[in-house]
Amino acid sequence: MQHLTFCPNDGQFGPVSNCRAFDFTLRFQSSIFQLLPNVIFQDITVGLIVFTLLSRRRAIQIATDRSACVHNRDGGSILLALLHLALMVALLALAPSLLPGVTTSSGFDTLVMPALAFETFSALIISCALTLHRPDRPTPIVTLVNTFLLLSSLFAAVQLRTFYFVPAARASAFLPVLAADFGTRWLLFITTSTKPFDPRQTAEEQPIELNDIEPLAPSYASRVLEAKLFRAWHASAGGVAHHDASEDDSSYPLDAKSLDMENISFSDLASLRTVSASQTTFLPKAPTTAKPRLVHASIRAFAGVLFSPLPSKALYTIMILLQPLLVQETLDFIASYSNDSGKPQPAAYGYGLVGAFALVYLLIALSSGHFTFSIYKTTCKLRGALVYAVYRKTLVLSVDALQNAGTPSPTVMQNVDIERIVGGLDPFHEIWSAVVIIFVALYLLWQQIGVAFVATIITLAILFGSIPLMTKDASAHQKQWSQMTDERTGLISASIKAIKAIKQSALEGFLVAKITSIRQREVKALIEYVQDLLCISLLGNVAGDILLLATITTFAIVSAYHHHATGAFPFTTSTIFTTITIVRIIDRPLFIIGRRYASVI
After folding, report:
1. Which of 50, 81, 147, 401 qualifies as a cystine partner to 127, CB 3.0-4.6 A?
2. Has residue 112 got a pLDDT over 80?
3. Does 227 lie in the same domain as 96?
């Protein structure tokens, strides 16, 4: 049945309208630009609220103190959110009467009414979020609302253009209300994205005197992180099993009373967790004789910080694995128009492939950018906490412990050990992602070329087996380099302290020769370590070409005999390009593993 209100194909899921120039069908537009973003936003919001209510450590605190909430919130954004909700309710009420045939009962389902209903519910969520949760700092819920408002405002522009060419909407009050809602969304996005201005806070601000600023005072966050790190560090040593009072002039505070002496109030500690919960979390069940390790303590104390780049890297991995499927579908779509015997696939399928490619590469760019941002953010947090931890640990050690030959140099720990821990964050996430990509890509390759993918597995096994063989001495060379660096810095530090006695004894020449000798051995150890890294990098650069050559050659030979006999796994253009895409996907993880392997051993 043809409707005068809409185009004849507005009830079909097709990207091209046959009566509006350069426009989508209403069903396609309502599904992609309205239903899908609103469903995703509502699912994430509900999951975030449930996680907040069930989690003991609430990353998002919904304010319960109404006076503090009213003091920090921006009244303009709340009024705009309520106006946006009222306009959406008006659109939902006006659509059945002003747009004939828009309801599902007419048999011409354009999904306009379900889309408006979901947008109304999203507007209700935004209004509640801005009313009950309006902090003075960015939080995940605020970031989620701002992102959704930006995307929905862009999609509302497409919707506004479409209904402008619908005569029934343009001649009624539906289009002005829709235009008002479009403007309200942009104003709401601008107000929520900017810092709220409160004149009362400006009037209450007093000038800060320089004498009131405590020099080099650590922030509250750094002190809390320090407490967590040192609890984990002491716990990794087995409690008091390795604690010697003769080597430690003062222990680091582990209870609430000592933390209060470190200028941390009881109210601040109560917002985190109780002392018993902290001990239950970080202390082992039984004392161990293992030597305390800074890496283990860092993982215990900063697990959430270390694994924060995980979601974006997981999304990036999934999008990378979707590329071969898109390439195969695209080649099959093109081949359907080249083959005269078969029926061509509909044009809407081609538009869907274009949108799929755009979505995949957009998500790859966004996830890659967010992963890089998360890595740098995590690196800054971890490096700052570890440097401060080593500094505080050095201050509480006695002079006898510092003069002990077995005590590592704090300078070397800050320059070498901490950089190794921090520098291993990016390789760690790259390597687990590379392993997942390789396994899934091998399964996709098996579906394309059949038994010929055994050649790929054998080549991969040879390449992976050669990496540990080429780097079997890399860890030893790196340890030797660290020891030489520690010895040189220790000798220079001791020489500076005893420079007066050295000059009186005329030992300058002997000291210079000694330092020069140690420096030469240090450089030699560094060269050996860099040579190991160079071999791994060379193998990673040529691994992709070796893998591609072995795979294509084997597939050509197997296909020549196997396809001739059974007709399966043909050596066609679609299969070859899909295989090359899959091998190139495997190639990049090999290059990353070859380049990053030595950074995590």
Report:
1. 81
2. yes
3. no
